[in-house]
Amino acid sequence: MAASPPTLSFPRPTFAKLSPHPYLLAGLAAPDSASRSNGRAPHEARPIHIHTSSLSHAHGSALVRSGDTTVVCGVRGEILPVTSIPQYRPTTSYNTAEEERSAGLGRGELRDYDLLVPNIELATGCAPQFLPGVPPTTLAQTLSTRVYSLLHSCKIVDPAAVRIWYHPSKVLSAGDEDEKVDDDDDNDGDNGDEEERRTKPQLMAYWVLYIDLLFVSLDGNPFDAAWAAVLAALRDTKLPEARWDPDLETVVCESKKAPMALQITGVPVACTAAVFLEKEHAELGGKQKKNRHWILLDPDRLEAELCQEVVTVVVDCEDGSGETRIKSIEKQGGTVIGRELMRGFVGVAEQRWKEVRKML
Length: 360
Description:
four-stranded antiparallel beta sheet, 11 helices, alpha+beta, 360 residues
């Protein structure tokens, strides 16, 4: 019986490792329907799963999984007295979060005093390139910087929610009343100023929110997953009621009272896409030739390595007006995505916002 001739074809996993670009192009250029190597359509994102209150010893936490990308976020609040802030500028006005939003107030304490501290770590083995014993990667530092910048630009945390005030009693003792009556004729103005100083609220400390993220598994698009975890963990954060004790001269927390939920404004959601080119730059030889492209929403690790142009849009549709507010646009490399494509991509980001908002 004659032996069958040797085959020149490779299994799909082997083909993907040996020639990743032709492998992805073969699915996208299919005449019937474009399909990526992971089976998704170009504008199809991976389903996102969000679980809150995942950590027992954090004030707020969340676990987010998108495909094979999994990240855990924990928020821990620590008390920072104003006397420990070198650049502290005293404030004399007491406003609730609602009053500040309606009046358009905001002194920038969150950024000036570093009250929001994100930190991102990539666990050993979360991806093939992350080996044990290596220093922090550039990716982790870049993600931390982007999360930090977006936290402040979106203003999702109200400064009033992290302030700890001291409210002196407005009821004077009998001795104080007698003393005040005796001095009324001689020094009315001084007594009025003294009473105001004694009864005026004083800002004594802040809550510092340490936001730590750990990537357990990384299969592309880390920023969207990290930001979703930060947003979910902050919405889950509950801080104990804190007050200033004048006898102890320190801030104490009420353990018998239920913790108060952190006030969050809006639901900004990040949406990332990468541009895959039919021909790589080396194949074009640096010449301007016609080059088809596909915009791949929520790229996985293989797709991200093959794409040189990436765009991230952060949108929020939570204000109740029905309008979409663009909070941030970031674009890296390439020249494919212009104004027209960006307008269309905002519509894709709106759909992604609905999916994430439903999970939150």
